TrEMBL record:
It comes from the Eukaryota. The chain crosses the membrane at residues 21-42, 48-69, 81-99, 111-130, 151-168, 201-221. Belongs to the ammonium transporter (TC 2.A.49) family. Rh subfamily. This is Ammonium transporter Rh type B. The gene is rhbg. It is found in: Membrane. InterPro entries: Ammonium/urea_transptr, NH4_transpt_AmtB-like_dom, RhesusRHD. GO terms for molecular function: ammonium channel activity. Residues 29-262 form the Ammonium transporter AmtB-like domain. Pfam families: Ammonium_transp. Its main location: membrane. PANTHER family: AMMONIUM TRANSPORTER (PTHR11730), RH50, ISOFORM D (PTHR11730:SF60). The keyword Nucleotidyltransferase does not apply.
């Protein structure tokens, strides 16, 4: 955790100012990445080799995470892509380099009754706390969605694992390896989209697919990798973390492509900047509105001999201000609608969402009249009861 923090400070100065909670969670994520890689190497390496691998992996993990989350702006709240998939295939690449033919099929390459019991206890704890893992970096509604989606995915995954395990077994029995591992694959597969609007039914489909992929992977993929590709996966990290992580990446791309403002509101546009607080979202939206309102309008009638020149005529300051605002488009009664500044209604002809140009057209005036005949414009506006609008 400390080494990951050090690397991230070196890679990105912004990390120095992040909150302690996010920093600690990020450190835990980095530790989990190393533990996943250990799963592919158990029983084949010395402690020194594991230390060297951990140092190298944390460095590459931090750089990869910074590239994906901060440069390419990917959304991965549960770490399915940058944590599970990366850790799995980093470990598999190392085990490929350290491959020994005699390791596969070794007498100690398996489990016994006591190890199965302890492993099952670990599985139960992981199953219970996986929703909190996926939702740790979320806030507000996003965190709530993450907990529910993860829980639904785990439910479907657990049920499907028991069904598929008995199907792929020649004698119709349940395999403890499948139950200990594949029941958690749903939490991995839903990780990247757990905070998105996938709905409970969608989360259950993702969890069920992950269970099928993981269970069949233990039956087919693990022996195939060891026999034909010289990749001896001790704990089956490819089946629990690798392939479900790839599924999570594909699902996140589909869900992101289907995202709309109707479902997410303005938060749809801020995923790329990472988790935002409510006040931050409000201030960004306010800044956006201010930019639009203070920008000179693009109406064709907004032209004069000297842009920005005041309209001067003999009259009270209130009337002069009204005409100046009408010519510039900076009226309090205007509102944004479909990218233009509009009045709610023209009080002369009752037209809904009338633009400033319509007011002039409605009383047979042109834009030059604002500069050359301001007194006449004012008189016409009063005669047609349009002064309340300007």
């Amino acid at each position: 955790m400390s080494y990951r923090r050090l690397v991230m400070r070196f890679r990105c100065s912004a990390v120095a100012n992040d909150c302690p909670k996010a920093g600690l969670i990020g450190g835990n994520f980095a530790s989990a990445t190393v533990l996943i890689s250990f799963g592919a190497l158990l029983g084949k390496t010395s402690p020194l080799q594991l230390v060297i691998m951990a140092i190298l992996e944390i460095t590459i993990f931090a750089c990869n995470e910074h590239l994906g989350l901060h440069i390419y702006k990917a959304a991965d709240i549960g770490g399915s892509i940058f944590l599970h998939t990366f850790g799995a295939y980093f470990g598999l690449s190392v085990t490929y380099m350290l491959y020994r033919k005699e390791a596969a099929g070794h007498t100690k390459d398996g489990s016994n009754y006591h190890s199965d019991i302890f492993a099952m206890i670990g599985t139960i704890f992981l199953w219970m706390f996986w929703p909190s893992f996926n939702s740790a970096l979320g806030t507000g509604d996003e965190q709530h969605r993450s907990v529910i989606n993860t829980f639904m995915a785990l439910l479907a995954c657990c049920t499907m694992t028991f069904a598929i395990s008995s199907l792929v077994d020649g004698e119709g029995r349940l395999n403890m390896v499948h139950i200990q591992n594949a029941t958690l694959a749903g939490g991995v597969a839903i990780g990247s989209t757990s905070n998105m609007n996938v709905h409970p039914f969608g989360a259950m489909i993702i969890g069920a697919l992950a269970a099928i992929i993981s269970t069949i992977g233990y039956r087919v993929a693990t022996p195939y990798l060891a026999k034909h590709m010289k990749i001896h996966d001790t704990c089956g990290v490819n089946n629990l973390h690798g392939m479900p992580g790839i599924l999570a990446g594909l699902v996140s791309a589909i869900v992101a492509a289907m995202a709309s403002e109707e479902n997410y509101g303005y938060r749809r546009y801020y995923h790329a900047s990472g988790p935002c607080r409510t006040l931050e979202l409000y201030s960004r939206r306010k800044a956006l509105v201010n930019i639009f309102w203070r920008h000179p309008p693009a109406h064709s009638w907004y032209r004069c001999e000297g842009p920005g020149a005041a309209i001067c005529f003999k009259g009270v300051k209130k009337d002069q201000t009204a005409l100046c605002r009408l010519s510039s488009g900076h009226l309090k009664t205007l509102r944004f609608s479909r990218g233009e500044k509009k009045f709610n209604i023209c009080t002369k002809c009752n037209m809904i969402e009338a633009i400033p140009q319509h007011l002039l057209d409605c009383v047979a005036l042109v834009c030059d009249d604002l500069l050359k005949r301001p007194d006449f414009v004012l008189e016409v506006m009063r005669a047609n009861d349009l002064m309340d609008l300007i």
